[in-house]
Every structure is written in structure tokens, then in C-alpha cells.
Amino acid sequence: MSIFDKLIHKKDEYDNESLNMLGGFIQQLDRRSGKADPDKASADMKYARALQRARLTAKNVQINTEYHLTDETFRFVNWKLDTDTRYKVRIPFYELDAKTEIRVNNRRRKTMRERQKIYGYAVWLLGQQNNKSYCCPNCGGTSTVEELLGGCPYCTTRFLMSDLYPKISSIYTQKELNIQKRFKLDVLLFVLAFSALGFCLNAKEYISIFNGTYDGNKKFEMLAALVIIPFVGIFVGVLFANLAVAFRKLGKHIATSGLRSDTRNAGRQVPEFMRRYEPNFSLDYFITKLVSLTQVMLYTDDYKSCAVYNGEPMENRWKDIIDARYRGFLKINECREENGYLYVDAEVCMDNIYCRGGKIKRKKERFRLVLRKSASAETDYGFSIHSINCRSCGASFDAAKQKHCSNCGNTYAIDSYDWVVIKFESC
């Protein structure tokens, strides 16, 4: 057992369970598992992934990822202060090698091999009982809470309801420098460079030695130098390779310092504002909601019927995005209350993969979202369930995925219960 594993096992039961949850989650993300979605994925994540699959199908694209996950894979849990009154949240991560193959029209277009840190928001809702019986508020039929996720089995009424925990509510990845591989390449480079330099400086003498025409008295010393010089290259290579790794890490740290500062500030701004209206406000819940809304906006082709968009009519300018991953950074521009609604103006950093004309391009981008929610509708961080019936015709439908009643077309105001997007754009 490594020292890191010993540190992990000294932590509490939530830390250990979060590592197991994320490990199983990553295994089920692997194409070899054959699963569309990991079992522990949240409802919001499954919805975003369903939209992504529709986008991939429309473009005839396949993204196949394999993760090299072993008992020796480095894993740890980020420190988390439990300030939430209803949730337990841990942010475990695994550092591993991933291979992603992208195929367009069944032809391989790009293969990416990289070292990644995969972080997950592992969430427990304290006191939730998934197998507890619950009476449908519409017909009175008794079902388990888990059965009601798909609607009442007796009267087909659909509900807006809390997710069932524990779940991995969101993940984000950060590309890491493969230190071991980079170190070996740097050392090899210096060995070859020093060997080539040593040979070039005395090229004429070495050629004459091999031709048998050398008449100097340093034949043995010069031949020995051919053996010694590579070892000098190894020594110097190790020294400079360590320096190179240190400078690369420093460069990455400096390059993301602004993003990390914005993210830390967001962790103070949003709770300070929201807890005036929601004493039990959960920052982690909000972040995972923000990421899910960003992915839904990128993957949705029709904003007119998108349940979580309630802004001005617009076309999706990001229809070529086939994979959108949260980078772990965000910024809050403004939080305000106006006319009975709460508004949060935020920027989210994403790592996107585009497919245009069969060509694959990867791009880091920022997106700005303005969110809105009724100030009087405090998020129920315990279990909550609301039956959804059209106020016009009384029909029931899935308001989490449909903006309009499927029977009469009437619009349902989901911002009475949860956040909606009223503006979305690239930064």
C-alpha cells in the first residue's frame, strides 16, 4: 500500500466511498463497459449525455475512450468543508492515462493519448430513503420514490423531483503533464545531443581512426570519449529534464492563476448572495447545475423547445461541438435580485471538441450564462416532488426536458422551481 493510499484510509467513510463511486463511474465511462451512462450519473448529467449522443448520431461520429485504471492508479480526495446542512459532498480524483479515438463516417480521424486528472462531485443527500413508499399527489397510488422518477405507474403523471443520491453529479477533467514520459524523452534528447556534439567536434579524427589512417597518439583517449560522452549526456539530461519539468509546471500554474482566482472568488460571491434567500444554499449543487446547463445549451439544437432556456430567440452557433468538458474554472460577473427574481451572471470554462466537415479540432473556450430563478422558490435540498400538469389542458409532461405541453403547446414556467438560462453566448 502506497503512502497516498494510507492517507486515504485515514479519512472518513464518505471519502472512501467517493473514491469507489468515481472509480466505478470511470470504468462505466470506458467504451469497453458497453453502458450508455454510468449508474451513478445524476439525472442532469444523463440528460446532457443523451443530447450529446443525439448530436453524435446526427453527425455519424463515434467517440471511444479507454481509461487505464489499475490498483496502482493515483487517487485522492480533495479537502472539503461540510458547510451544507443537507448534503455531504466530496471531490475525489483519479490521475490516469486515457486514449480517445474519434471516428467520422466509420473512419478514424483523431486519436488522443493523454494523462488526465478526472474529478467528480460525489454527493449524498442526508436522510434520503430511495425505497420509501410515496403516494402520488395526483391519483393517490403508492409507489417507491425510485419508481416515480419515470412518472406515476398508475396515472402517468410526470414530476419535477429531486435526484436520488448518492450520485456523481458532475465531473471535470484537467490535462496533466505525463512527467515520467516527458522525463525519459528529455534525457534521451540530451544523450543524443551530447553524443552528436562530441562526434562533430572531432569528426575528422574519428573518421581517420575508423579508416585506419589516424597517426596521432590519442587514439585510445578518443575512442574512450565516445563511450564517456553519452554518460555525461545522461547526467546533464537528468539535471535539465528536472528543470524542464519544473518550468512546465510553473508555466501551467502561472497560465491558470487568473482562472483559479476567479473560481475562488466565485466560491465566496455566490453563497454570500444566495444565502440571503436560501439559508441552506449549496454551492456544490449550484456549480453542478451551472455545468449541466452549459452542456445542455451547447448540445441542444432547438432552443424553442428547450425547457431550461427562456431567453430571446436564437440559433445554436455551436452545432459542431461533439464533446464539451468542464475544465474546473468559472467566474461570477454579477449576482442580483430584481422584480422578484434572482439573477446570476457567470462564465464557465470548457474544453470542446469540434467536428467540421469531417475534421476534428479541439478548443478551450469560455461561455457566458445569465441564470434566473424565482426569489420566492427556495431550492428544497431535502427530497422534493412536484406534479407537472399543464395549466391550460391539465395534461402531464416532463417539464425538465420539455418547455411546452405536448398536448396543447402551453409553456410551463420552470423558473418557479429551478434555474433557467435567459442569455447564452461565447466570451
Give the arrangement of secondary structure elements:
Layout: H1 3-9, H2 13-29, H3 43-59, E1 61-68, E2 74-78, E3 87-104, E4 107-125, E5 133-135, E6 142-144, H4 145-148, E7 158-161, E8 167-176, H5 179-201, H6 203-211, H7 219-255, H8 257-274, H9 283-299, E9 321-338, E10 341-356, E11 359-374, E12 385-388, E13 420-426
Helix pairs in contact: 3-9, 5-7
Would you mind describing this structure in some detail?
It is built from nine helices and 13 strands. By secondary structure, the protein is of the alpha+beta class. It has two domains: 3-176 and 256-426, no CATH class; 179-254, no CATH class. Strands 1, 2, 3, 4 and 8 form a five-stranded antiparallel beta sheet that branches. Strands 9-10-11-13 form a four-stranded antiparallel beta sheet. It has a two-stranded antiparallel ribbon with strand order 5-6. Strand 10 and strand 11 (359-374) form a beta hairpin. The longest helix is centred in the middle third of the chain and has 37 residues, at 219-255. The radius of gyration is 28 Å and the shape is elongated. The two termini are 46 Å apart. 27% of the residues are buried. Residues 1-9, 380-390 and 394-400 have low confidence and may be disordered.
